[in-house]
Amino acid sequence: MRRKHSMGMAGADVKSNCRQPQIRAPDGTVYPKGTIHRRLTKSQSEQLYTGSGHEIAVHGLTHPFLEKLPENMIMWELLKDRENLENQFHTIVRGMAYPFGTFNNITVDCLKKAGLVYGRTVISSHCFDIPGDWLRLEATCHHNDPELMNLAKKFVEETPGQNSRLFYLWGHSYEFEANDNWNVIEEFAAYMNNRDDIWYATNIQIYDYMQAYQRLEFSVDGRQVYNPTAAELYFDKQEDDTKRYCILPGEYLAL
Hints:
Elements lengths: L4 E7 L10 E4 L13 E3 H8 L21 H19 L5 E3 L7 H9 L4 E7 L12 E3 L1 E2 L5 H10 L7 E7 L2 H6 L2 H11 L5 E3 L2 H11 L3 E2 L5 E3 L6 E5 L2 E8 L4 E3 L1
Parallel strand pairs: 1-8, 1-9, 2-3, 4-5, 5-6, 7-8
Antiparallel strand pairs: 10-11, 11-14, 12-13
Helix pairs in contact: 2-3, 4-6
Protein name: Polysaccharide deacetylase
Subcellular location: Secreted
Keywords: Signal
């Protein structure tokens, strides 16, 4: 089914009380009586996140200001973190959230060399544009943004026209405990949930779909199209956005 919107959510340094604990404490960690257990052990985190549908992403091995490091140390931070995560969660890690949200052009080049295809920043655009620069990925907003629900309603209620749109929310779950405002994300989730015209996807799912879409091959007159990818893709014709097309992997289609 074609959906006119897509929605992504990203977090980093994830921790809280009972809702989404932080990775991770060493196995055998003993907490003082009466403290809130905010950290999972390695084995607990593997149980919770492996195969869960959550996307695992690099965040720097030691959470440094990457732009302040020499290039060889940046590469070590990225590759060692990626290696650890891939071995722990039995997945291929292809994305990143910049620690502290800071980066420069050298940092971005290092992401490419490390085989990472996107880097989430902390920049809020208040827009729903599909990303043009995935290595400098901007979010629509942070969950503490006072415009959160206004943006959500705008996203849902406005007709997108010929352009696909993305609502990208980022934040840290520990902030809900610190600010005593779990109601913020619960209200947002209740409003955005279970809509037939929204695709709820991870960063890498959206990235892969857009890469596949850009590989569609059109004839000179635009009347034929070929899908060389393994993805089922959806699109409209520019002159008639009421006509919806679906092209299967390996399919030629006359428009």
